[in-house]
Amino acid sequence: MTLEEVDVLSTVEDRLDSSEHVIKTTKSLCPECLKILQATIFERDNKVWIKKKCPDHGGVIELYWGDYPMYLKVREAAYEGQAILKPNTPIERGCPFDCGLCELHTSHTALANIVLTNRCDLSCWYCFFYAKKGDRIYEPSLDQIQTMLRTLKSQKPIAPNSIQLTGGEPALRDDICDIVRLVREEGFNHIQFNTNGIRLANDPNFARNLLEAGVNVIYLSFDGVTPEANPKNHWEIPKILENCRNGGPGIVLVPTVIKGKNDHEMGDIVRFAFAHVDKVRAVNIQPVSLVGRMPRRERERHRITIPDVIKRIEEQTDGQIGREAFYTIPNAMGISHLVQTLSGRPIYELSNHFACGMATYVFKEGDQMIPITDFFNVDGFFELCEQTANNLQDRKGGTWTKFKFLWRLRKLIDTKRQPKGVNIRHLLMLIFRKGNYDGLRAFHHASLFIGIMHFQDLYNYDIERVQRCNIHYAMPDGTIVPFCAFNVIPVHYRDKIQEEYSIPQEQWEREHKRSLKDDKYLRKPPPY
After folding, report:
1. 357-380 pLDDT, tens digit each
2. Is residue 411 part of a domain?
3. In contact, 54 and 9? CB cutoff 8 Å
């Protein structure tokens, strides 16, 4: 198949026309040969695009951010984060080929992923991450997992406290509860379990066993409320909820959103979460990453960006959750600075690139969904936190500064519009008083967190985003790799390391006395 036939790279003019203007320059990759390229981010038709040109394979233009005014808003929050003090890898080839982390990386690890297996009991068409017949099987040992955990804990000045156990399908591991207990023993106090939920539905004791072992939250794939949008686990969802209610962890719904497939169900997904808010803590939406060789017409058909998702939510909730309710991740830096100043110890800095994700908190009163921005001056709060942290660091009357903070905090709350039963001031003070995840937990239990995180692919790749990533993968060779390097450049990271630490399928089947195909889930007909 020729490049022209699949339209991997279309011709790009070197100059923009009069209706387009440059926002900034950055570096990207050629989708064909992975060469590091100069790239231009520019505005056209009120959207943001990225353009690059490879001397060997031509150029490509790709949608970067679906709304220019929203891009300008989130860009104001850009923040240069705190790098780790002792990088694990030297700089040799340049970002993103020296990951481990290297000294060019400006964010410490906030959430660390550990891949437990590349086996899966499903074979979803858009997934790039499961073992097929003839593949080698990657399943790190308990000793290798312990090494990864200790590498993460050695980060200075801030070590992560959050681990996501992922796959493949990690529920296929027979020793999964032993792994969870190991993570706890190594000092991590927040454990996410990333799953399609099949075992949670079919094993009535599994949710309880995970909770008792130490899992905090189930990170549950959930692509929609209809079987057409969510064929993966639509029929199993009721049983998953039931089993988690009977002594299991809380749940985060994780929709992978694909334009034309399930983007029409964003509002219904949020309503579903609220209908089960006794157990559902959040909705974390992931616009699809278009991996592999994909022609332009296919990318245009499936590409959806963060602003597009937010607009769908606004439209499909009849304006109850508007676009103005969402903030980019580094907006919260003022809170981190204040907590760090009050506690006197280094604390997480969520210094992701501003284009990586956006989020909000929504409360419910009757049939109404009420974003936090409807009754709380969020912009004023971020500014107040930053000012208070700066004054305390400058030793400007510590007691008086804290008193002014409390007084000004009251004035940011519209108590008449605040939902009944919600005391936003009390919830915020728990965060500052405890200075850890326990304080944040109370806030999450009183609301529904709606987040949107758009992981990259080779078409919209921005190396600046990789350098600011704080969602990382720990690997058994002692390296730590950003999400959008690990999964987008698998030949250098995911596939390479898993090949090195894997065994042939035949060997795995002999040792476990079963066939890989025995993992595959054969759904029984639904009871209706």
Report:
1. 999 999 998 889 999 999 999 999
2. no
3. yes
